Amino acid sequence: MNPKNILPSALLAFLCLAAPAIHAEPPAAATHASSLPSARIEKWWFALHAEKIDEMAKKDIDLLLVGDSILQGFESVGAKYYKEILEPRKAINLAVGGDLTQHVLWRLDYLPKPKKDPKGAVLLIGTNNIGWGSDTPKQAADGILTIVRKMQKLYPTTKILVLAVFPRRVNPDHGHRKQINEINSLLPDMLKDLKNVSHVDLGRNLLDEKGILSKEIAPDTTHLSEKGFEIWAKAFDPELKKLLGEP
């Protein structure tokens, strides 16, 4: 983040303390931090959010991308594939590195209302809730469900594609991998009866036949290499076609 591109302190204070936008509603039956909107009190985070507010207010958007650094990586390591499969679909990438489900909930409260509902939205979130957060898999899954319900209220006609949380760590018996598998095992039943919501596991394409996540695919065992984005994009494109009703 360019040091010059930081919000004035007055605007930071406003974003921290202002009441939620008119369209915001408390999540239903929120009983854990993962399901309650919360801001990250960091200047770069607010500055990036302000940039996205400005971008969203100016652009004609058909596709929302919502999540954390895995999805945000399409703008850097995966930029080639962003141009190929996302940019032509009038996408805006609202993913922010390090976010937990509660941070996504807060950011959704502070976005401009688009002139029309986007055709589709993609959500990939949850890995940080168990990676550096303290959630159980069930709590992380509850946070994902709360986000989906909020997006349904904000964009009633938008079709939402929830991606299973991507694998992390090399070996399938690692604790983080087991927790992610548990999150993913809960999502299908939690989402199955929600209107305009679908779910798919694309992360399995990143693993070999033994369930290994190689350093070639994810050098730090979490974030994808360009090769990883190539694999993801190949599996992602047909899902986007279905989501957006393309021939």
Produce the secondary structure layout.
Blueprint lengths: L8 H9 L25 H16 L4 E5 L1 H4 L6 H8 L4 E3 L7 H9 L10 E5 L2 H5 L5 H18 L4 E5 L11 H17 L5 E4 L25 H19 L3
Helix pairs in contact: 5-7, 7-8
Characterise the protein shown here.
The chain has 247 residues and is of the alpha/beta class. The protein has a single domain (28-242), classed as SGNH hydrolase (Rossmann fold). Helix content is 43%, strand content 9%. It has helices spanning 9-17, 43-58, 69-72, 79-86, 101-109, 127-131, 137-154, 175-191, 226-244; strands at residues 63-67, 91-93, 120-124, 159-163, 197-200. The chain has a five-stranded parallel β-sheet, sandwiched between helices. Helix 5 packs parallel to helix 7 and helix 7 crosses helix 8. The longest helix is centred in the last third of the chain and has 19 residues, at 226-244. The protein is globular, with a radius of gyration of 17 Å. Mean pLDDT is 90; it is low at 1-29.
Keywords:
247 residues; alpha/beta; Rossmann fold; 9 helices; disordered N terminus
CATH superfamily: SGNH hydrolase
Q: Distance N terminus to C terminus? A: 39 Å
Major sheet: 5 strands, parallel
Strand-pairing-aware structural class? alpha/beta
Quick gist of this model?
The protein has 247 residues and is α/β, with parallel strands linked by helices. A 5-stranded parallel sheet has the order 2-1-3-4-5, with helices on both faces. Helix 8 links the parallel strand 4 and strand 5.
